[in-house]
Structures are given as structure tokens and as C-alpha cells.
């Protein structure tokens, strides 16, 4: 099957089955770039909502329905990652051998995101809820039309959203462990290990493409206007996970020390 047809099915097919579509034998057909759609196609059951759902507080996570709600947020992030990766495959040009190479990396990450989504939804079902029971937002996708090039895509997706997810996975893995919920903590551990490799794919390509100067400066220069590196951090900061993804001490220090003025990214305050 052509990689463009595979990614089109995921991006523009509206059912959950389309989002989880798989095909093992992909051929990277050549094409020029296509416009990024304003929104991925989604059927009514998984449609974006204007309602701002609230993430459950830490001290309420011993309750099954709040656990399911927390996992529902995580599952939606996986679904958005699936659609954004499909958009990267479908919309950025495939001309050179290098284009095919970085797209192969995206396909392997996309398959992991489908696996993560299914793991979360399986656990949500065990907890007595289903995907679609709670409203879902489109925050991650909203950045997609601004990501005009593969380098901008990797800086936003891998080095920002997926990198912050390393911290979130570790943080919630420990919370669920402390609640004695082995099943959920082991899912978060699986996601963590895969996400380290996804962040590393983005780092690899940005290192290939960066002009002279540091990876940190190149990364910052690629982010959309309203997004700062503070988005690449969670409420804890794992140097170890970032080192495992291949980042230098310098890069990790720069990110650790980075501050902005946005309240939304002052995540350490969320814990209180
Ligand atoms: Fe994921
Ligand atoms: Fe990922």
C-alpha cells in the first residue's frame, strides 16, 4: 500500500477504525507537498468539544471514574499524535531518499501511538468507562497548520509535546504505583519507553538539519510564535529520560533553566 493512502485513511477517515488503521507493507510513493487540513476528520463520537474538561486532582485518583477520566486525557493525546503524524506523512513532500527515511521513523512512532491509544482505552474499559464518554480537546492539533516543514514538526511534536510526556509518564506512573494500581502504572511505563525513542527520532533529524550553532537555538527558532520551550516540561523534570533520548547536558541544562511568563506552563504550581 502507498504510504500516502495509509496516512490519508488515518487523517481523513473519520471513524476510530480509520485512526487505528494498520498496514505492514508500505511503499513511500513520491509526491509534492499538500495543504495541511484545518482539522482532521472525526465522527460524532470522537468529535472535538468546546467544553474544557478538567484533569482530575491527584488526591481523587483512587476513584475508578476519575482514573478513567485521567486516562481519557492521555488517550486523546495519543489520538491527536496519531493524526498529526498522519498529517506529516500525508502533507510534507516525499521526494528525496531522506524524505522517505524520516517518514519511516514517523510511521514507526505512529504505530506506537496506536498501540498506546489501545492500551489506554482497554484500561478505561476495565474501569467501567469508554473512549468518548468525556469531552476531548484539540489543543495539540491547533499547532499543526503552523508546522510548515518537517523540522518545525519535529521541534513541536518530538522535542516539545512528546518530551513533556516523558515527565508526565514518570509522574503519573509513580502516582498509580503508590495507589497500588499496577496495571495502569505498567501501561505508563510502556508509553514512557516508547516515547523516549520518539523524542530521539526528532532529535536525530534536527541534528541532521541544523545549521551551525547549538541544537537548543535551532529548536527554539523552529517553535510556533506562541509556544515556548516551557511546554517541553512537565511538573517534574527528568534529566535521565532526556539523556536516554540522546540529549546533551547543555541542551538539558538550557531546558531545565528555561522560564517564561505563561501561567499555563508553571506546572510545578499545579501540584498544589
Ligand atoms: Fe504515545
Ligand atoms: Fe510518541
Describe the structure.
With 272 residues, the protein is mostly helical. It has one domain: Up-down Bundle (Ferritin), CATH 1.20.1260. It is 57% helix and 0% strand. The protein is built from ten helices and no strands. The longest helix is centred in the middle third of the chain and has 30 residues, at 97-126. The termini are far apart. The structure holds fe (ii) ion (2 copies). One fe (ii) ion (FE2) binds at residues 78, 81, 113, 116, 191, 195.
Top keywords for this entry?
57% helix, globular, mainly alpha, binds fe (ii) ion, 272 residues
> H/E order of the elements?
HHHHHHHHHH
Structural class: mainly alpha
Q: Specify the CATH homologous superfamily.
A: Ferritin, core subunit, four-helix bundle
Q: Number of helical segments?
A: 10
Coarse morphology? globular
Please sum up the structure shown.
The chain is mainly alpha-helical and 272 residues long. The protein has one domain: Up-down Bundle (Ferritin).
Secondary structure topology:
Layout: H1 3-12, H2 16-19, H3 64-91, H4 97-126, H5 139-142, H6 150-178, H7 182-209, H8 215-222, H9 239-244, H10 249-257
Bound molecules: fe (ii) ion (2 copies).
Residues 78, 81, 113, 116, 191, 195 line the site of one fe (ii) ion.
Amino acid at each position: 500500500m502507498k504510504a500516502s493512502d495509509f496516512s490519508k485513511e488515518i487523517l481523513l477517515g473519520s471513524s476510530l477504525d480509520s485512526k487505528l488503521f494498520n498496514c505492514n507493507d508500505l511503499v513511500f510513493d513520491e509526491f509534492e507537498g499538500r495543504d495541511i487540513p484545518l482539522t482532521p476528520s472525526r465522527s460524532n463520537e470522537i468529535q472535538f468539544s468546546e467544553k474544557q474538561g478538567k484533569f482530575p486532582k491527584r488526591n481523587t485518583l483512587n476513584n475508578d471514574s476519575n482514573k478513567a477520566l485521567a486516562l481519557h486525557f492521555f488517550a486523546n493525546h495519543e489520538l491527536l499524535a496519531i493524526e498529526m503524524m498522519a498529517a506529516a506523512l500525508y502533507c510534507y513532500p516525499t521526494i528525496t531518499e531522506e524524505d522517505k527515511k524520516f517518514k519511516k521513523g514517523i510511521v514507526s512512532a505512529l504505530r506506537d501511538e496506536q498501540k498506546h491509544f489501545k492500551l489506554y482505552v482497554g484500561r478505561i474499559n476495565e474501569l467501567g468507562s469508554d473512549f468518548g464518554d468525556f469531552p476531548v480537546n484539540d489543543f495539540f492539533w491547533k499547532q499543526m497548520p503552523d508546522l510548515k516543514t518537517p523540522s518545525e514538526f519535529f521541534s513541536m511534536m518530538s522535542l516539545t509535546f512528546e518530551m513533556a510526556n516523558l515527565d508526565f509518564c514518570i509522574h503519573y506512573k509513580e502516582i498509580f504505583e503508590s495507589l497500588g494500581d499496577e496495571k495502569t502504572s505498567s501501561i505508563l511505563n510502556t508509553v514512557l519507553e516508547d516515547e523516549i525513542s520518539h523524542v530521539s527520532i526528532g532529535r536525530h533529524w534536527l541534528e541532521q538539519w541544523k545549521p551551525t550553532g547549538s541544537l537548543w537555538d535551532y529548536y527554539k527558532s523552529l517553535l510556533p510564535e506562541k509556544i515556548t520551550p516551557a511546554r517541553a516540561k512537565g511538573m517534574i523534570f527528568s534529566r535521565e529520560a532526556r539523556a536516554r533520548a540522546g540529549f546533551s547536558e547543555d541542551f538539558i541544562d538550557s531546558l531545565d533553566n528555561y522560564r517564561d511568563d505563561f501561567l499555563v506552563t508553571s506546572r510545578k504550581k499545579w501540584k498544589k
